[in-house]
Amino acid sequence: MKNKILITGYPHTGTSILKSKFGECHDTFEEIVECDFAHQRIIDSSGNKKFIVLKSPVLPLEIRKHKLEFNANYENSFYYNYQIVLVNRNPWN
Asked: Model pTM?
């Protein structure tokens, strides 16, 4: 199983730069196209890399619900094995 990292946040908050920095790591496959999850084409494209880094403009509802309220079924979720990085900064600064 590959380790999947999902980076998300508002536009112009540094998510693209963060994704590219993760992608520079030796054992990381960087998916160029924005997407919500690592579907089979991405996993197959990653070769023998240990990590897959993705960027999504929207935090999937399933993750938001888990973060806002206790969800006992989250262990069965598609996103359970993801590391979620939420970039939150004021874009006016």
From this structure: 0.76
